[in-house]
């Protein structure tokens, strides 16, 4: 079962969230038919977005991450609710690239680094809060670290990993976001960076352990205290009602053209691939009658 764990150091100067997200990424792989490098790129993005969504304080808030680095994968989109439940897609899911010289998937090459990482928080106000920074490498974790430093002005380290098996299924996936609290001395950054260097590959830790092991290693020697542990999943919020509202919003002229074609209209959800079919009569039902305008 996928989970997010939150913890703080004993002195309260550092907070961390870690996720074990194998099932989330495997679900995305199955839905979208992701190539290995697309699974790694979208998987890292989903795990980070889930962590950031879980940080939202408002119950009905949502968080959207958009990454476009100009690489062959195109845009990556991930959306999380305030519980860390997440969904996402990549523009070109079948793209594949040769492995790098070290045998690793070339996520940076597939994503590209000539573009931006944008985080949009919809807190139920008139306008969402939007922050955006240039991509550093396209490897995702480094880009989130830079985003927090530049856009949020928060000392942050982010680590993410996705391991794809020889049968193309997801063996493990997850990562962490660790942040200094206000008033924390800069010396703590050195301790965290040293711990991260010593801990090795994130996927090695997740393959034989879990999110709690990530926390233990990142905060080694800093007396971490677990605050919360909760399940998260890949969850799409689409429904026939929502799709109906979207169709109704395209305007009377477009609706009339659809209805006059006398063919069923199909709408496919980008996040879960669910197909919603509407008959010409149903589409006509979305067109307001003249009497409605006279009221």
How much beta, percentage-wise?
Answer: 25-35%
Coarse structural class:
alpha+beta
CATH superfamily of the largest domain: Hsp33 domain
CATH architecture of the largest domain: 3-Layer(bab) Sandwich
Order of helices and strands: EEHHEEEHEEHEEHHHEHHEEHH
Number of domains in the coordinates? 2
Report helical residue fraction: 25-40%
Q: Runs with pLDDT <50, length 5+? A: none
Q: In the CATH hierarchy, what is the class of the largest domain?
A: Alpha Beta
Q: How many strands, what sense, and barrel or not for the largest sheet? A: 5 strands, antiparallel
Number of helices: 11
Return the average pLDDT rounded to an integer. Answer: 93
Shape: globular
Oligomer: single chain
CATH T-level topology of the largest domain: Hsp33 domain
Amino-to-carboxy terminus distance: 53 Å
Question: What do you see in this structure?
Answer:
The protein is of the alpha+beta class and 295 residues long. It folds into 2 domains: 3-231, Hsp33 domain; 240-294, CBS domain Like (Alpha-Beta Complex), CATH 3.90.1280. Helices cover 35% and strands 27% of the residues. It has 11 helices and 12 strands. The protein has helices at residues 22-32, 36-54, 107-111, 141-152, 187-199, 202-208, 211-218, 240-248, 252-260, 280-284, 290-294; strands at residues 3-9, 14-20, 62-68, 76-81, 86-90, 116-122, 129-134, 156-164, 170-180, 224-231, 265-268, 275-278. The strands form 3 sheets. Strands 8-9-2-1-10 form a 5-stranded antiparallel sheet, with helices on both faces. Strands 5-4-3-6-7 form a 5-stranded antiparallel sheet. A hairpin with a 6-residue loop joins strand 6 (116-122) and strand 7. Helix 1 (22-32) packs across helix 2 (36-54). It is globular.
């Amino acid at each position: 079962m996928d989970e997010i764990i939150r913890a703080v150091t004993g002195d309260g100067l550092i907070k961390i969230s870690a996720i074990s997200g194998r099932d989330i990424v495997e679900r995305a792989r199955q839905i979208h038919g992701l190539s290995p490098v697309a699974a790694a790129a979208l998987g890292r993005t989903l795990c980070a977005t889930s962590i950031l969504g879980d940080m939202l304080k408002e119950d009905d808030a949502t968080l959207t991450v958009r990454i476009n680095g100009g690489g062959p994968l195109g845009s990556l989109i991930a959306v999380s609710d305030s519980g860390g439940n997440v969904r996402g897609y990549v523009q070109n899911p079948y793209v594949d690239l040769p492995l790098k010289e070290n045998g690793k998937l070339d996520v940076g090459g597939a994503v590209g680094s000539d573009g931006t990482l944008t985080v949009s928080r919809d807190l139920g106000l008139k306008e969402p809060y939007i922050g955006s920074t240039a991509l550093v490498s396209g490897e995702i974790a480094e880009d989130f670290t830079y985003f927090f430093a530049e856009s949020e002005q928060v000392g942050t380290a982010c680590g993410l990993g996705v391991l794809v098996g020889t049968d193309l299924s997801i063996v493990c996936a997850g990562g962490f976001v660790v942040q200094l609290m206000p008033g924390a001395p800069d010396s703590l950054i050195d301790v965290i960076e040293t711990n991260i260097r010593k801990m090795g590959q994130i996927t090695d830790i997740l393959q034989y352990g879990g999110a709690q092991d990530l926390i233990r290693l990142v905060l080694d020697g800093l007396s971490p205290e677990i605050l919360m542990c909760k399940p998260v999943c890949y969850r799409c919020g689409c429904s026939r009602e929502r799709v109906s509202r979207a169709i109704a919003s395209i305007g009377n002229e477009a609706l009339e053209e659809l209805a006059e074609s006398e063919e069923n209209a199909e709408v496919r959800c980008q996040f879960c691939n669910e197909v919603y079919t509407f008959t010409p009569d149903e589409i006509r039902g979305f067109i307001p009658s003249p009497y409605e305008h006279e009221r």
